[in-house]
Amino acid sequence: MLKYTAKRLLYSVLILFFVMFLIYVLMYNMPMGYVETKARELASRPGATKSYAEWLADLNAQYGMDKGVIQGYFVWLGHAVRGEWGDSWAWTIPVTQEFHNTIWYSFILGLVSFIFEIIIAIPLGIAAAKKQYSFTDYFTTVVAMICISMPTFFLATLLKYIFSVKLGWFDLSGMQGRNYLNLSDFGKFLDVAKHFVLPAITIIIISIGGLMRYTRTNMLEVLNSDYIRTARAKGVPEKKVINYHAFRNTLIPLVTILGGSLPGLFSGALITETLFSIRGIGYASYTSMTQADIPFIMFYLAFISILTLLGNLISDLLYAVVDPRVRYS
Questions:
Q1: Handedness of CA 205, 162, 154, 175 (dihedral sign)
Q2: What pairs with residue 87 in β-bridges?
Q3: pLDDT tens digits for 241-272?
Q4: I need a surface site. Which of 72, 76, 213, 237 has the fewest CB within 10 A?
């Protein structure tokens, strides 16, 4: 296992090297007007000590834009490896500081949504497979298809219209209420948590459909296997057949989905966070993209790439946990 893990990590580092190179090439070929606009803005600030030409030269040198693509990439990569990602143009603070300020909001929102997604989708998928062609199966299938087909912006708008405009239970957007500063510490916690309810519901509804369908499909395939029919013929209780024999083997493909969900816990829900004005990493990345914040965009894309590779590695390693027959040599 350790040898396999080390080998996969080396492959992941190699893949990441080329992925980051593609990210740099995209940045290198962006219109230079973005850099020129930033240099002009910095030069025009009160108390600026550098001219427009000096700022332009500094920005180009910082990202290797004054060199060729290959040499410039290694200049930028050297800064990135040392953790020198520069200052965000949109937020006017170091990129890593803005990341630290926003990542935990996205993580909490993603974690809560992920937990409820598993609690809701997997049992419903199993129930639909157990009672194939029954009302439960048809109902679950219809609900799953509606969830899969529903656009995020439509669902978020619908929830805000019902629960914020009509019922007045929640604020339309934001993370704090009007009386936030007058509340106790626990009251402030509850106030922020209340503002996370609608965004979490939006993510859960959008996500459960695919997992329900996937669970149902794999559970049906397992239930039609020969060893399941043999267990039933031997008189094994149906509850044990479903919960022990069938579900255990259904977990193997589910691990791929769940392991691949790791990036979603940290990468943020860009559309949902933007619609509800949740100041997470998704909202910050969207704002940075609209303002051509090259430093933050570069960092965010590299961060997502690392999470994706790590999620794939975790999925492969979990195979041995859920299936004792899988061994890495």
A1: negative
A2: 94
A3: 887 778 777 777 777 777 667 676 776 678 88
A4: 237
Single-letter code of the amino acid located at 50 = K
Among 20-34, 45-59, 255-269, 284-298, name the one with the lowest average pLDDT: 255-269
SS3 state of residue 91: coil
- Between 95 and 39, the more confident residue is 95
Task: Give the whole-angstrom CA distance, residue 282 versus residue 71.
Answer: 31
Chain-centre distance for alpha carbon 139? 29
Q: Residue 176 and residue 195: Cα distance in Å, rounded?
A: 7
Calpha distance 210→134 (Å, rounded): 20
**β partners of residue 94:** 87
Q: How far apart are CA 54 and CA 39, in angstroms?
A: 8
Asked which of 79-83, 122-126, 199-203 is least confident by mean pLDDT, the reply is 79-83
Which residue carries 């993370």 as its tokens?
175
pTM tops 0.85: no
The one-letter amino acid code at 262 reads L
Q: Where are the beta strands (DSSP E) in the chain?
A: none
Q: Is the pLDDT of residue 197 over 90?
A: yes
Q: Tell me how far apart the 2 most distant CA atoms of the chain are, in Å.
A: 85
Burial class for 284, CB neighbours closer than 10 Å (0-12, 13-18, 19+)? buried
CA angle, 53 then 59 then 62, to 5°: 140
**Residue-averaged pLDDT of the chain:** 84
DSSP character string of 248-305: HHHHHHHHHHHHTTHHHHHH--HHHHHHHT--SHHHHHHHHHHTT-HHHHHHHHHHHH
Which CATH code is given to the segment(s) 103-322?
A: 1.10.3720.10
- Residue 184's CB is within 10 A of a number of other CB atoms, namely 8
Q: Which pair of structure tokens corresponds to residue 81?
A: 């490896």
Collapsing DSSP states into helix, strand and coil, what is residue 84?
Answer: coil
Residue 328 pLDDT class (50, 70, 90 cuts): low
